[in-house]
Write a structure and sequence with these properties.
This protein is of the alpha/beta class. It is built from three helices and four strands, in the order βαβαβαβ. The protein has a domain of about 80 residues: Rossmann fold. About 30% of the residues lie in helices and about 15% in strands. A four-stranded parallel β-sheet has the order 3-2-1-4, sandwiched between helices. Helix 1 packs parallel to helix 2.
Length: about 120
């Protein structure tokens, strides 16, 4: 048996700190494969932030069968100027993108054993 503890290594994952007045950057990594992932709820939250003129910069990493639906939702919510889809990237690129974020967001309705 091998134990794989879940956790965040603070030596690897060090969030940046947004300067006052700068955009708050958050990242979400996950395969848009089902509505259970909760990514549509994340987009709805972004629309609320945009409506409040909040400065934010979401970084969405991952690709899957729901990506086109999520892109249409971004257009419907009129938040395309705030959202960047990076698609499927390798682990080194994920680490680079996470390093540019102030926070990591993992929306989900069914994540009993998260591995993102």
């Amino acid at each position: 048996m091998e134990v794989c503890p879940l956790g965040v290594d603070p030596e690897v994952f060090r969030p940046r700190r947004a300067a006052p007045g700068a955009s708050f950057a958050f990242s979400s990594v996950g395969r848009p494969g089902s509505r259970a992932k909760g990514q549509a709820i994340l987009l709805a939250a972004m629309a609320i932030l945009a409506g409040r003129d909040a400065a934010f910069m979401p970084i969405l990493v991952g690709d899957g069968p729901d990506r086109q639906r999520l892109e249409r939702e971004v257009d419907r919510l009129d938040i395309a100027r705030n959202v960047t889809f990076h698609g499927s990237v390798n682990q080194d690129r994920v680490l680079e993108l996470l390093a540019t974020a102030d926070a990591f967001v993992l929306p989900s309705f069914a994540k009993g054993f998260p591995s993102a």
